[in-house]
Design a protein that fits this description.
With about 475 residues, the protein is α/β, with parallel strands linked by helices. It folds into 2 domains: about 270 residues, 3-Layer(aba) Sandwich (Aldehyde Dehydrogenase, Chain A, domain 1), CATH 3.40.605; about 190 residues, 3-Layer(aba) Sandwich (Aldehyde Dehydrogenase, Chain A, domain 2), CATH 3.40.309.10. Helix content is about 40%, strand content about 20%. It is built from 15 helices and 23 strands. A 7-stranded mixed beta sheet has the order 15-16-17-14-13-19-20, sandwiched between helices. A 6-stranded mixed beta sheet has the order 10-9-8-11-12-22, with helices on both faces. The chain is globular, with a radius of gyration of 23 Å. The protein starts with a strand and ends in an 8-residue tail after the last strand. It catalyses: an aldehyde + NAD(+) + H2O = a carboxylate + NADH + 2 H(+). It is an enzyme of class 1 (oxidoreductase). Its EC number is 1.2.1.3. InterPro entries: Ald_DH/histidinol_DH (IPR016161), Ald_DH_C (IPR016163), Ald_DH_CS_CYS (IPR016160), Ald_DH_CS_GLU (IPR029510), Ald_DH_N (IPR016162), Aldehyde_DH_dom (IPR015590).
Length: about 475
């Protein structure tokens, strides 16, 4: 990117309109400090306009009454357009959030379009109407769109998160108002235009950039039927409380403190690259990051040496440098948080066996990969989500102890098991109280449910389970004795 993208209007109901708000959100590169662009900071009046457009479009039936096959065709067309503009989106996202173009291509564009395609497949295969026979005879069970959706997403993988909200909402027949994170609003406008170009009717989609107040206006709006949120556990708790007061549907994808359990027989030489990637991806700014690595005490030093060797190759730097493997931390506040956790780890007795020196480039906040040993599960760095490239190694003596350590967490979002015996790894995975697990790697499968236990969230995304969270169930009891022809 060269010139900043100065956007003076809001994308409301598929049209660019003048905002009510006079406030502006400036967007700066976390790597260089250069201005990337600006957007209006939507206020409550702007949110109301977006929700009104969504409500009118939903009530009119212009999208919810569109046949499912036509809705999914639009979603598939959006996938094509996103892929056609992949380079443009990669450059924009790298500028907004500091990720390398390679990371954008894999963990955002590929993952996001895969989710869209999986939602389209799920909708095409879904049983939207069924007939059941009960004590009174025949009942027809219908699946209907929940209504107007308010979506709020985080800054760490915005393209992926955008797709994971738009995909199920649109497949279900909902209208949607999305609030992107204030750090990364520019790509949301581009993506919204793509969906309009793909064929989403006027009124169905809106983007309202902003911070806490914008999000609050969306959550509390009486014409929003469902809130879907991806972000911190603390914010999710506040949203759940406000939705509960209104009896409003909601789903939450929140924080994590995932454990990677390395079993005694693991081939650590083969596993180390993927194990470290699972903890350091996106500069550790991932809710599913495997940041607690549980290793058998008998192989502790060997495994740590292999981890250090691989992590040392995760070079921090500017996103446009082909040697960069770890981009910058998103902003000053998050940088202080991450470095504070590193200091806390040392203070509580853990040993930093690796601290890759951060580069002095640009004006960004860079933190190199950091690995702690001597970590116990009661330490702060083992309990709290750091959201940075920091991994803690915890030794265990028995598999049962490893399972207990993994489960001793307020979170339950992700995890993994590393072993040469896949079935033994599966038996361990079954005992971990977490929403997703991987064996010898970690990934989110777009056709399978994703979400958390405990404080990692409520509800599921992806697959038919993700689609169903945007649907209501209606039962129509037919006359007694009536039988369908």
């Amino acid at each position: 990117m060269t010139d900043p993208i100065e956007t003076t209007k809001l994308y409301i109901g598929g049209q660019w309109v003048a905002p009510h708000s006079s406030e502006v959100l400036d967007v700066f590169s976390p790597a260089t400090g250069a201005k990337v662009g600006s957007v209006p900071d939507a206020d409550a009046t702007d949110v109301d306009a977006a929700v009104k457009a969504a409500r009118e479009s939903f009530d009119s039936g212009v999208w919810r009454n569109t046949p499912v096959a036509e809705r999914t065709a639009v979603i598939r067309r959006a996938v094509e357009l996103i892929n056609e503009r992949g380079e443009q989106l990669a450059q924009l996202l790298s500028a907004e959030m500091g990720a390398t173009p390679g990371d954008v291509a894999t963990i955002q564009q590929f993952a996001g379009t895969a989710c869209l395609s999986a939602y389209a497949d799920a909708a095409d295969a879904y049983e939207w109407e069924e007939t059941r026979t009960g004590i009174f005879g025949e009942t027809r069970v219908l699946k209907e769109a929940v209504g107007v959706v308010g979506a709020i997403i985080a800054w760490n993988v915005p393209l992926f998160l955008f797709c994971n909200k738009f995909g199920p909402a649109l497949a279900a027949g909902c209208s949607i108002v999305l609030k992107p994170a204030p750090e990364t609003p520019l790509n949301a406008n581009v993506l919204a235009e793509i969906f309009t170009e793909a064929g989403v009717p006027e009124g169905v989609i809106s983007i309202v950039p902003g911070g806490v107040e914008t999000g609050r206006a969306l959550v509390e709006h009486p014409d929003v039927d469902k809130i879907t949120f991806t972000g911190s556990t603390r914010a999710g708790q506040q949203i759940a409380s406000r939705c509960g007061e209104q009896l409003k549907r909601y789903s939450l994808e929140l924080g994590g403190k995932s454990a990677a359990i390395v079993l005694e027989d693991a081939d650590i030489e083969a596993s180390a690259p993927m194990l470290l990637f699972s903890g350091l991806l996106n500069a550790g700014q991932a809710c599913v990051a495997q940041t607690r690595v549980l290793v058998p005490r008998s192989r502790h030093d060997e495994i740590v040496d292999a981890m250090v060797a691989v992590a040392s190759t995760f070079t921090p730097g500017l996103p446009d440098d082909p040697e960069t493997r770890v981009g910058p931390i998103i902003n000053d506040k998050q940088y202080e948080k991450v470095t504070g956790y590193i200091a806390k780890g040392k203070e509580e007795g853990a040993t930093a066996v690796l601290e890759v020196e951060a580069p002095k480039v640009g004006t960004g906040n860079f933190v190199g990969p950091t690995i702690f040993t001597g970590v116990t599960n009661d330490m702060t760095i083992a309990r709290e989500e750091i959201f940075g490239p920091v991994i803690g190694v915890i030794a265990y003596d028995t598999v049962d102890e490893a399972i207990a350590i993994a489960n001793d967490s307020d979170y339950g979002l992700a995890g993994s098991v590393w072993t040469q015996d896949v079935e033994a790894g599966y038996e361990v995975a079954k005992q971990i109280r977490t929403g997703t697990m991987g064996i010898n790697w970690y990934s989110i499968d777009p056709a399978s449910p994703f979400g958390g236990y405990k404080k990692s969230g409520i509800g599921r995304e992806n697959g038919k389970e993700g689609l169903e969270s945007y649907l209501e169930n209606k039962a129509v009891v037919m006359p007694m004795g009536y039988t369908s022809a």
